[in-house]
């Protein structure tokens, strides 16, 4: 993709996007430009779908593919869990294991397990285990100390 | 997570080791208490250093068996077949060593009471850990509500 950047000293700032076929990258760029920074673009059966960060219950990485789960949708998204964490920059998303990120605002209840693990029950009823390695950081986050 | 935050094998080993040593101390004191009561009842007011050494080593080795073979049953979330099996086998091991080491002068009746005592100790430790987790549940959920409320206020 050719990127043409021009610095101007006068007139209105504008961005023109020219594309042959829409894809998730284009959708994301449009989303950012339209101040939809808190939205996530992904695919469900080759269709581009957008969900707000708030709707996401958790993200899971399976075989190098990342899926975002809401109450009723599962979207396949581009990038990795790390890139999502950088992009979202929201403290309500917490990396709870190597392959999962959970939305703390969508946690219904927590249960302390043996070996200092924590079982988080999500709004959809799913149980996500916060491993021992991440549990102490999670406790710090709840206390507001991260 | 940063690389520096990852646990090294040494830190993982140390975590396990500290857990097992803590366990060994806990059960050693429980066994020692029974041993001392037995001695006092029999009019003996001192304890054998050899017996105490055997006790601490037994507790330490059984601690390893508890953690690595029977899934750390006294700290388990719930007792299933494997955990019950662990309780019975570890109790049996304590009884065997006590019999071999003549902690209770090889009296079968006392050894049987000792077995019951160890079983009750295991169940009590399991219940203590469980209630500790229940208290922790309450604390965690309170903090979660607070976090969610504050986060929504910011939005």
Protein chains sharing the most extensive interface: A-B, 22 and 22 residues
Flag low-confidence runs of chain B.
none
What class would the helix/strand composition of chain B place it in? mainly alpha
CA distance, first residue to last residue of chain B = 26 Å
Average pLDDT of chain A: 85
SSE succession of chain A: HEEEEEHEEEEEH
Q: Helix share of residues of chain B?
A: over 70%
Polypeptide structure, described:
The complex is a heterodimer of chains A (146) and B (155). Chain A has one domain (40-142): Beta Barrel (OB fold (Dihydrolipoamide Acetyltransferase, E2P)). In chain A, 20% of the residues lie in helices and 34% in strands. Chain A has helices spanning 24-33, 81-88, 132-142, and strands spanning 39-44, 47-52, 58-62, 65-69, 74-77, 93-97, 100-103, 107-112, 118-122, 127-130. In chain A, β8 and β9 form a beta hairpin. The model of chain A has no long low-confidence stretch (mean pLDDT 85). With 155 residues, chain B is mainly alpha-helical. Chain B is built from 4 helices and no strands. Chain B has helices spanning 9-41, 49-68, 81-100, 108-154. Chain B is elongated, with a radius of gyration of 20 Å. In chain B, 21% of the residues are buried. The model of chain B has no long low-confidence stretch (mean pLDDT 93). The chains are: A alpha+beta (146), B mainly alpha (155). Chain A binds chain B through residues 91-92, 95, 104-105, 107, 109-115, 118, 133-134, 137, 139, 141-144, and chain B through 1, 6-7, 72, 75-77, 129, 133-134, 136-137, 140-141, 143-144, 146-148, 150-152.
